[in-house]
Amino acid sequence: MVRVAIIGASGYTGVESIEIILRHPQAKITYLTALPDECGPVTKTFGQLAGRLDMMIEPLDLDVLASKADVALCCLPHKVSMGFVPKLLATSVKVIDFSADYRIKDVSVYEKYYQPHTDTKNLKNAAYGLPELFREQIKGADIVANPGCYPTGAALALAPALKEDLIKPSGIIVSSVTGVSGGGKNPSPLFHFPYMNENIYPYGVGVHRHMPEMEQVASTVAGKPVELLFQPHVGPFDRGIVSSTYSDPVGDVTPEQLMTLYTDFYKNEPFVQVVSKPPAVKNVAKSNYCHVFPTIAKGKVVVFSVIDNLIKGASGQAIQNMNILFDLPETMGLE
User: Fold this and answer.
1) Can you list the domains of the chain with their CATH numbers?
2) Which of 39, 75, 149, 290 is catalytic?
3) CA distance 184 to 218
């Protein structure tokens, strides 16, 4: 039985992780932590857990955590996580980190978008936790950097075409729309109901911090530098991300060739389904699935993907990574 601690258990990804582990036959929640003003009965924060989980959210005590857990899901914000991860690893607990602090390998790129990095040693050793592309690196790792939600959808849409050199590595456009939960639990004027309801808008034009993460993953898959433009939007729905990617083909590529390539590439991946028409976020809501549809339109390679940003884009992918770390069936708890 894998003993699981959740750090930052009071947020959206914390409760999604709890929900998944409660139905996981080989994992058990043993420790929940959050900021002092967010501590208390877990059911006080998440009423949906009444009758299902009788636990307290407690202030973090590393000695207690080390005695109770085999793995820590670190659901802390960017720039905060790196202050805790070294201490967690020093206790021999494995870490799956939800922040961006261990995703971007080029320290100068990370520091351009975030802040000075204080844990470059563990950054070098962190496995990038997108199982469909980096499963072998995840096995045996002590720390896994859980991918960002936008990069997950974009990478799964682009990887087969990049791997097979069917698209040019420059001029790629990724346009995505996320639900409101993508902004996290803390209130924001832009996500206030009167503004968000019946509304949709772009943000982070040309500067979104998931763009370098996308380029890093795409370049690793392609085996050469990849340049892309990422444009996010937020829409008036709770959860989900739809990503539309546009690329220039290398030579002549037919829709049938693309469909065959994608079907073959993901044929052994339980959580990636290549579908026969443009996908919808409702079809993957509250699941760990990614639906992908590749085609050709006006000479462009166009690939659509949809994921649930809180599951495949965060907590579900973390449990998928946990299963790999502890040599459990990858789908366990996520079926």
Assistant:
1) 2-147+313-325 (3.40.50.720), 150-308 (3.30.360.10)
2) 149
3) 26
pLDDT one-digit tens code per residue, 207-255: 999 999 999 999 999 999 999 999 999 999 999 999 999 999 999 999 9
Read off the pTM. Answer: 0.96
CA dist 306 → 30, 152, 269, 274 (Å) = 32, 10, 16, 11
Give the C-alpha separation, 81 to 7, whole Å.
10
| Interatomic CA distance for residues 264 and 256, integer angstroms | 12
290 has catalytic annotation: no
- Using CB atoms within 10 Å of the CB of residue 224, give its burial: 0 to 12 exposed, 13 to 18 middle, 19+ buried: exposed
Q: Taking a C-beta distance cutoff of 8 angstroms, is the pair 246, 172 a contact?
A: yes
pLDDT in tens, 288-328: 999 999 999 999 999 999 999 999 999 999 999 999 999 99
